[in-house]
């Protein structure tokens, strides 16, 4: 069984130190230019982990990702209009 995952965007002040976030969950991406990291953690332990991550000195702000709450299944009731706009 695959565990339910929650994504977090963590804004950091030190990108080099952000690599240490790997021990708290799955570190998906680190942006060196915009100083943020995308991390996924198990939903059942998410609050406990984020409380520990907030204590780190290089963490400025934590935002929860709402990607798993978006609708990803679409109904095909409306016709596809793209085939009418040919060259």
Looking at CATH, the homologous superfamily is Peptidase S8 propeptide/proteinase inhibitor I9
Radius of gyration: 18 Å
What is the first-to-last residue Cα distance? Answer: 48 Å
Distinct helical segment count: 1
Spatial order of strands in the largest sheet: 2-3-1-4
Major sheet, described briefly? 4 strands, antiparallel
What is the helix/strand order?
EEEHE
By CATH, the topology is Alpha-Beta Plaits
Number of strands: 4
Query: Structural class of the secondary structure composition?
Result: mainly beta
CATH architecture: 2-Layer Sandwich
Keywords: Cytoplasm
InterPro entries: DUF2129
Pfam family, one: DUF2129
Write up what this structure looks like.
The termini are far apart. This protein has one helix at 46-54; strands at 5-12, 26-31, 36-42, 59-64. Strand 2 (26-31) and strand 3 (36-42) form a beta hairpin. It has one helix and four strands. The model has no long low-confidence stretch (mean pLDDT 89). It is mostly beta strands. Strands 2-3-1-4 form a four-stranded antiparallel β-sheet, with helices on one face. It has one domain (5-69): Alpha-Beta Plaits.
């Amino acid at each position: 069984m695959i565990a339910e995952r929650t994504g977090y965007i963590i804004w950091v002040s030190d990108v080099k130190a952000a690599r240490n976030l790997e021990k708290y969950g799955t570190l998906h991406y680190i942006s060196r230019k915009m100083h943020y990291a995308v991390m996924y953690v198990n939903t059942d332990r998410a609050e406990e982990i984020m409380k520990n991550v907030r204590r780190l000195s290089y963490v400025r702000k934590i935002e929860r990702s709402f990607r798993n709450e978006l609708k990803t299944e679409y109904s095909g009731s409306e016709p596809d209009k793209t085939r009418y706009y040919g060259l």
